[in-house]
Amino acid sequence: MVLNYVWIAFFIIAFIFAVIQFLMGDTTVFQKIVDSTFDTSKTAFEISLGLTGVLALWLGIMKIGEKAGVVNVLARVLSPVFTKLFPDIPKNHPAMGSIFMNIASNMLGLDNAATPTGLKAMSQMQELNTKKDTATNPMIMFLVLNTSGLTIIPTTILAFRASYGAVSPTDVFVPILLATTVATLAGMIITAMWQRINIFQPVLLAFMLGLCAFVGIVVWSFGQMDHQTMATVTSVSGPLILLSVIISFIGAGLYKKINVYESFIEGAKEGFNTAVRIIPYLVAILVAVGVFRASGAMDMLINGIAWCLDQFGVNTDFVGALPTALMKPMSGSGARGMMLEAMKTYGPDSFVGRLSCMFQGSTDTTFYILAVYFGSVNIKYTRHAVTCGLLADLIGSLAAIAIAYIFF
Q1: How far, in Å, CA of 396 to CA of 188, rounded?
Q2: Sign of the CA dihedral running 306, 312, 317, 321
Q3: For 342-401, how does the pLDDT look when each residue is reduced to its tens digit (9 = 90+)?
Q4: How far, in Å, CA of 218 to CA of 101, rounded?
Q5: Are 166 and 213 in contact (CB under 8 A)?
Q6: Is the C or the N end of the chain the one with fewer CB within 10 Å?
């Protein structure tokens, strides 16, 4: 229901701003909006088409892992923590293993593996759902953890900084890690409070402290490396772990003497069907975002924020990076474009260029994730998912600004 109102709001706001632009003399604004609707609908289909192969691959691999018992082993290992964080999911349920695979993939910046495993987790949680059109508490907690976007190795961002000639492409690594950790912890705590989950349970407190300790160890470890070594580690570690997962799942299947090939095909078919189901939801959200951008609403919003801050004498150095922060909850590709535009305009080593990279890495695409994940299981009523996700985004963005001022 919330997505319905948000979707309508995008179009109404876009129309109002388009009229303002027209009255100010921009006679091409309506044509830009129409062109945007066609371009973004085409983009949505191309994204779905690109996801088809990836979903088929990873859901095929996941099916091997399920039949070989690997996913169940992960579920049992994680049960002490996840039964507290997801109390409505039965102990040792396979969804626990899929949730872990998704979170681990996100942490390593492996988007191609994260989406399929996330959709698999949603499908498994939907099997437990007694109201098939309404999001359950575990679904919402899972999606907020996704939208807060904890990423240990932001490989793509570092690669873009290197391609744009940054003197030290990895200098945003620690700031991004700190900002995304704040966003994830905030999202977890906000959602837990909303769902009346006691965050002071010893297991959950130990988990959160352990997460902070892990991040601290990563920060310290990378701090001991020179820039060349860090670049090598970030570019090699993710793909190496990904390949290791594939080989281990296949190896487990052979050990259990299951038909690995047939299991893969069974899972791949699920991936194809899922890719087809999400096309309408992708078209809906991306067209709305495209119309919003084409109307000039984004530019006017940024200028309005800058003017308001200036009236109160607040430092506005960060305003140039705000388009990335505002676009990130709506569109990953749109936010990436804003980040690249900021680095091109201000320079990759400028404050705005670095902060744009931090915005890109500190949170994830809330509306995109909600549309795709909920759409894959035909959820219509999202309850508090949007509110919790956007609050985590806001806290992550504010943390990124504060950390940027400290570091740069």
Answers
A1: 12
A2: negative
A3: 888 888 889 988 999 888 888 877 887 888 888 888 888 888 888 888 898 889 888 888
A4: 20
A5: no
A6: N
The C-alpha angle with vertex 366 and arms to 51 and 143, in degrees rounded to 5, equals 80
Beta bridge partners of 381: 134
Q: What is the mean pLDDT of residues 127-133?
A: 89
Residue 133 CA to residue 122 CA, distance in Å, equals 13
Encoded amino acid at 51, one letter? L
* Number of neighbours of residue 392 by Cβ within 10 angstroms: 29
Tokens of 18: 């388009």
Q: Which two tokens stand for residue 96?
A: 């626990």
Q: What is the helix (H) or strand (E) element at residue 390, kind and residue range?
A: helix 385-407
- In the structure encoding, which two tokens stand for residue 142, read together? 């899972």
3-state secondary structure 301-339: HHHHHHHHHHHCCCCCHHHHHHHHHHHCCCCHHHHHHHH
Handedness of CA 333, 338, 341, 346 (dihedral sign): negative
Contact 154, 109 (CB under 8 A): yes
Q: What is the pTM of this model?
A: 0.75
pLDDT band at 219 (very low <50, low <70, confident <90, very high): confident
- Identify whether the C-beta of residue 58 lies closer than 8 Å to the C-beta of residue 112: yes
271 pLDDT band, cuts 50/70/90, is: confident
Q: Which residue has the tokens 């402290």?
A: 209
